[in-house]
Write a structure and sequence with these properties.
274 residues
């Protein structure tokens, strides 16, 4: 019997590529997204159920999980992938934007996990794969709120993997570096109030550095990250963390080996910061 994976945020980027990868490997896929009526590729493939799920809507979460179970009999893996980035100066961030950042990246992930747990516990088996980021272990300027959510995902996942071990349920983390998707457009919210003049020069310098660093030709593809996710789902190990991309490997290794002062100096040098 084929295994089944439920994926949040499957309309584009990593989630879309993961849906294609698992379907190609013979899995059933519950590909969830906020606007399934706009999907033009996944809904034409066998063994893929495209359904509506907004991680901020509890009813849609429970409905998607039920529909997936009704359609395929069982869900074996939940890929918590949906997310977006709030960028800019912390002082400029609107309260409602901060709430949405945590609502999507943290509380939405919590709610999907909580909704799937009774099914996994009943089967005494199941796997949560949570898409984190190098930004869950290291930080860049102007992304304090995004990093806060990914640090939360890292801590939650690590603690939960102890808690669920007795139930037969596993938890894993995938930590991509830069990925060549439309995250910077569709999934990025930039907020800076230029009236806060003390920040303007710094913001301009950081954004200029980001444009140089975020070269799509040097970033990982969504397909590469999907391959890492597939490995995490199928390698049969109890490994917790999986790095995705050469830059993720380099940055996370450096962070582990260097002192705070040395690492910060390296990062400032790479971004031409004073």
């Amino acid at each position: 019997m084929s295994k089944t994976i439920l994926i949040t945020g499957a309309s584009t980027g990593i989630g879309h590529s993961a849906a294609l990868k698992f379907q190609k490997e013979g899995w059933n896929v519950v590909a969830t997204m906020r606007s399934p009526e706009k999907e033009t590729e996944l809904n034409k493939l066998e063994n893929i159920l495209v359904t509506q799920l907004d991680v901020l809507d509890l009813d849609s979460i429970e409905s998607s999980i039920k529909e997936g179970i009704d359609t395929f009999g069982k869900i074996d893996v939940v890929l918590n992938n949906a997310g977006y980035g709030l960028m800019g100066t912390f002082e400029s961030a609107k309260r409602e934007s901060i709430s949405r950042q945590f609502g999507v990246n943290v509380f939405g992930l919590f709610d999907v996990t909580r909704a799937a747990l009774p099914h996994f516990r009943a089967n005494k088996n199941g796997l949560f794969i949570n898409v984190s980021s190098v930004g869950g272990k290291i930080t860049f300027p102007l992304t304090s709120l995004y990093h806060s959510t990914k640090f939360a995902v890292e801590g939650f996942s690590e603690a939960l993997h102890y808690e669920l071990a007795a139930t037969g349920v596993q938890v894993k983390l995938v930590e991509p570096g830069g990925v060549a998707t439309d995250f910077g457009g569709r999934s990025l919210d930039f907020q800076h109030d230029e009236a806060l003049m003390e920040y303007n020069e710094f913001v301009g310098g950081v954004m200029s550095s980001f444009q140089k660093l975020m070269d799509p030709t040097k970033m990982s593809t969504p397909e590469l990250v999907a391959d890492v996710i597939y490995t995490a789902a199928t390698d049969g190990s109890d490994q917790l963390r999986y790095r995705a991309g050469a830059d993720a490997e380099q940055l996370l290794t450096a962070r582990k080996q260097m002192t705070d002062a040395a690492f910060f100096a390296m990062m400032k040098g790479q971004m031409d910061l004073k």
